[in-house]
Write a structure and sequence with these properties.
The complex is a heterodimer. By secondary structure, chain A is an alpha+beta fold. Helices cover about 30% and strands about 30% of the residues of chain A. Chain B is of the alpha+beta class. Chain B is elongated. Chain B has five helices and ten strands; from the N terminus they run ββββααββββααββα. Classes of the chains: A alpha+beta, B alpha+beta.
Chain lengths: ~160, ~250
């Protein structure tokens, strides 16, 4: 919960931000350069926060599967499809032996010109609930980020 | 529903499919073997796999039914995971992997079916694929499967214009190919069925529709008029050359 991840969507971009501290047991800051960003494809990325082992395991699993899709089929998945795939995996694993305590933000810009909205941003929590919004956040920072987003986000950022 | 069998199990009944700039045309020969057979409402040979993809069958109908079911499942499984329609090549390729497995493992016989798939997706637009019992598949601009397919393909090679064929050109081409390759002397609407797939970019909807008997009659009549005009011109040419000779 102490780790912060934020995503903001503009007209033709998606911005993903994260903090870089790993604080264990609330009093000890172990690492100042943590990476929470995982590349899913050339134009889509995922931020993940939560239980450290689960975060890496889940994010790498999704990321590699998306890469595999591209190798097999020759086309890149849109951020919308990536996010739905991620949610599907999260929801399937939830009621099985291996669930992941990871909150995730998936965002990217679709390379397909036929897509209506090309900048796409999704938030998926550890229970497999997904929403698409202009400002998304996980962790304690969400109380601040979402409130500020509500007040200050506008269409032509 | 009465099951239909292709009576000549080793020879597939003919169909051709043509890709146009703004659609895909599929034409098939109807094999109403007996007037006593029960009527089929939608189509004898054309099956919808999902909103943007349909396919037609050549071969053992019972084998085809199993594979059609599998094609639909592949499409739906993808939709469940990714919440968007499956790319055409994805579906074709998955089914062909299954077909191939039967040629290599298990000791079972392969599926005696060839498919022609026509569809639209947002990655590559209109597409046309053909697959056979070996599990091999390929993308085509125009192709034909079944009886007399070689003749049909050579006609398509000459007449199909890459990058310039519109839907009406494709329909006329299909009629022309049929008139040259079908066993019968005269082409009538009862002997053929034609389906057209078109995607509307504005509404993002794909429509697959069968041509009605009246539309088929019009197309056939247009073709016959063209032919008789050509014949008349040719005869005139002959007469003038003979006159010149004298």
């Amino acid at each position: 919960m102490v780790e912060s991840i934020i995503g903001i969507r503009g007209k033709d971009f998606v911005l993903l931000a994260q903090d870089a501290n790993t604080t264990k047991y609330g009093i000890l800051n172990m690492k100042f350069d943590t990476n929470r960003l995982f590349k899913l494809s050339e134009h889509c990325a995922m931020l993940a926060a939560g239980e450290p082992g689960d975060v890496v395991q889940f994010a790498e699993y999704v990321g590699k599967n998306i890469q595999l899709y591209k190798m097999i089929n020759g086309i890149e998945l849109s951020p919308y499809a990536c996010a739905n795939f991620t949610r599907h995996e999260m929801a399937t694993s939830l009621r099985s032996r291996n669930s992941f305590l990871a909150n995730v933000i998936v965002g990217g810009f679709s390379t397909n010109e036929r897509d209506q909205e090309r900048a796409q941003l999704y938030s998926i929590d550890y229970l497999g609930a997904m929403i698409s919004a202009n400002v998304v956040a996980h962790g304690f920072c969400q109380f601040f980020a979402l409130a500020i987003g509500d007040r200050l986000w506008k269409e032509d950022l | 529903m009465a099951r239909r069998y292709d009576t000549r199990a080793t020879i597939f009944s003919p169909e051709g499919r043509i890709l146009a700039e703004n659609g895909v045309v599929l034409a098939g020969e109807k094999r109403n073997v007996s007037p006593l057979l029960d009527d089929v409402k939608y189509s004898e040979k054309i099956y919808k796999i999902h909103d943007d993809l349909c396919c037609s069958v050549s071969g053992i109908t019972s084998d085809a039914n199993v594979l059609i079911n599998e094609l639909r499942m592949i499409g739906q499984r993808y939709l469940l995971t990714y919440q968007e329609p499956a790319p055409i090549e994805y579906i074709v390729s998955r089914l062909c992997n299954i077909k191939q497995a039967y040629t290599q493992f298990g000791g079972k016989r392969p599926f005696g079916v060839s498919f022609l798939y026509m569809g639209w997706d947002k990655h590559y637009g209109y597409q046309l694929y053909q697959s056979d019992p070996s599990g091999n598949f390929g993308g085509w601009k125009a192709t034909c499967v079944g009886h007399n397919s070689q003749t049909a393909i050579s006609i398509l090679k000459q007449e199909y214009k890459i990058g310039e064929t519109q839907l009406n050109d494709a329909l006329r081409l299909a009629i022309r190919v049929f008139s040259k390759t079908l066993d019968t002397t005269k082409l009538t609407p009862e002997k053929i069925e034609i389906a057209v797939l078109q995607h509307d970019d504005k509404t993002n909807q794909t429509t697959i529709r069968m041509l009605k008997d009246e539309e088929l009659t019009t197309l056939i009549k247009q073709y016959e008029e063209e032919q008789s005009k050509l014949e008349a011109d040719r005869q005139k040419q002959q007469q003038t050359t003979e006159k010149d000779k004298k």
